[in-house]
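Shift notes (night). Ran Formate dehydrogenase subunit gamma while the centrifuge was going.
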Amino acid sequence: MTFRAPAPPRADRIRAIAAAHAAERGPLLVILHAVQAEFGFLDPDVIPVLADELNLSVAEVHGVVSFYRDFRTTPPGRSTLRICRAEACQAVGADALVEHAKQRLGVGFGETTADGAVTLDEVFCLGNCALGPSIQVDGKLQGRVSPDRLDALLGDLR
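Came back to this:
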């Protein structure tokens, strides 16, 4: 993976975020979440900046970013659809719902539709087990989601 230096104003903001959390114990995860919250994703070019600020290797920072599913290295869509893949939801049709969503959107997990409208993600529990299959659309929890109901929700997003 190759990195380019981020534009100075953005690099300065990333350094400021890192400085604001540097005194915390094990600040890397907190800083990564804060940078992603501000910019929407973790552009790979921020990795060397954070490595330098935290006196870590680029490989260490990249390893953390690539390990955790919650970190995105590409811009998300305008909306995010997360489908629960935990056992309780699988038992009531989540696998079929996943296949329906992938076909309907034309993308896989971690991908965004060509029009930039929807990013499809998987999650392994939304805490809504009694009302599965469950999804989350832009942070709003939905239970007992059928393919038809999913289509209606997706129609509202586009």
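DSSP finds seven helices and five strands in the chain. The beta strands are 79-84, 111-112, 118-123, 135-137, 140-142.
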